[in-house]
Amino acid sequence: MWRTVKIQSCLVIVIWVVCILYSLPLLLTGQITYSVNNQICQIPLRLSLPMIYVTVIIYMIPNSGILGFYIKLTRYVHQISLRTVGNHTLFHARRELKLVKRTFILSNTLIVLGLPYMIFVLMSFFTPPPKYHFRIAYICADISVLLVVIIGYCFTPNIKTIIRKKFTRSTPVEPMTIRFTAATYGRTITAN
Predict the structure, then answer these.
(1) How far is CA 64 from CA 68, 107, 138, 182, in A?
(2) Radius of gyration for the alpha carbons in the chain, expressed in angstroms and rounded
(3) Ranges for the G-protein coupled receptors family 1 profile domain (predicted)?
(4) For the chain, does the N or the C end have fewer beta carbons within 10 angstroms?
């Protein structure tokens, strides 16, 4: 049902609307300021309602949803495995579980490598953050994006085999075959 073009289009529109509505309160209230030390426009790191709002919208809600969906789908596949159901249903459930597992791993990679930024955010609730805190956190964010791309390549079987072939390319050795025919038995080969 959710795989139809109409549903997918609606989901894309909903995502765009949520992204636009999420940033509007921050823009309209003037919470985003220019940080001279980090040379970037961002919400000042301090204990404030906008900082908590951003943390909840960006980190808490999506990751809680992914975790809940993963747990629910894992239980569903486990229950289906115990019952007698068609192989087709079990195959699709396991395939969807594999997809959600990959999403869960990618999400956790981003969470773990986003920890330095979250530490700076939590530090800012009690003390001022270090002078170049965002530059330090941005290095971790760049590394996390790189790792997500690498993990994505590892999860895609076709790309995985192509990369393996590129790095383990060897020249094929063809066996030499000698064919004897009736005409070669009677001849004598002499060297000059």
Answers:
(1) 6, 10, 24, 79
(2) 29
(3) 1-160
(4) C
Helix (H, G, I), strand (E, B) or coil at 16: helix
d(CA 71, CA 65): 10
DSSP notation for 150-173: HHHHHH-HHHHHHHHHHHT--PPP
3-class SS at 34? strand
Q: Where are the domains of the chain?
A: 45-166
Distance from C-alpha of 159 to C-alpha of 21, rounded to nearest angstrom: 37
Residue-wise pLDDT tens digits, 44-86: 878 888 888 887 887 788 878 877 877 887 787 777 777 766 7
Tokens of residue 99, six digits? 């997809």
With a CB cutoff of 8 Å and minimum separation 6, the contacts of 127 are none
Beta-ladder partners of 40: 35
Q: Does the global pTM surpass 0.85?
A: no
Kindly report the CA angle at 67 between 66 and 68, in degrees rounded to 5? 95
Q: Decide: residue 26, CB within 10 A, 0-12 exposed, 13-18 middle, 19+ buried.
A: middle
